[in-house]
Design brief:
Elements (H helix, E strand, L loop, with lengths): L17 E7 L5 E6 L4 E7 L9 E4 L12 E4 L10 E14 L2 E2 L2 E6 L16 H13 L9 E7 L1 H19 L1
């Protein structure tokens, strides 16, 4: 069986085009996580707060970030996909975040195969309302979990996202290759 974190490349042309392995779905409260030991997607928990994922959310294969997890990615989609779906995407921004004292940044990407997102190429192309919704979600989604503190730290452009992806690839290589 294919391990989507270890066996799948980071992307067809990383960091310009990446693969996003979807775990959590737009419009849902279920927090799925890919378990590389199974391998498969498992239900980690249901979000305690009355919020839902604004877009599909998952990780970038063969990446490892400063929080000692695969690098997180949120893919702007019109319709949800499914847990375990691999989406070819273009990074367009980076949202900086601190999760319980650990750097836990998020790549924001758009699907390469959806013409509705062709006009989004960089941070300034993402409508402010979408940025506000993503920020609000990550600022509040752990509010009702005991002892959890999350802080969003602002936005950076496409180049920062690509640099962070390369950093995550380097960390993966150092740790696992």
């Amino acid at each position: 069986m294919v391990n989507l974190w270890e066996d799948l490349e980071t992307g067809p042309n990383a960091p310009d085009e990446i693969y996003a392995v979807v775990e959590c779905l737009k419009g849902e409260r279920n927090k799925y996580e890919y378990d590389k030991d199974i391998p498969g997607v498992v239900l980690d928990r249901v979000l305690h707060s009355n919020v839902h994922y604004p877009y599909d959310y998952g990780f970038i294969p063969q990446s490892y970030y400063d929080d000692e997890d695969p690098f997180d990615v949120m893919v702007l989609v019109e319709d949800q996909t499914f847990p375990g779906c691999v989406v070819e995407a273009r990074p367009v921004a980076l949202m900086k975040m601190d999760d319980d004292g650990e750097q836990d940044d998020k790549v924001i990407a758009v699907p390469t195969e959806d013409p509705r997102f062709d006009h989004i190429d960089d941070l300034e192309d993402i409508p402010q309302q979408i940025r506000d919704e993503i920020d609000e979600f990550f600022s509040t989604y752990k509010n009702l979990e005991a002892g959890k503190e999350v802080e969003t730290l602002g936005w950076e452009d496409k180049q920062a996202a690509k640099d962070a992806i390369e950093h995550a690839q380097d960390l993966y290589d150092e740790e696992f290759q």
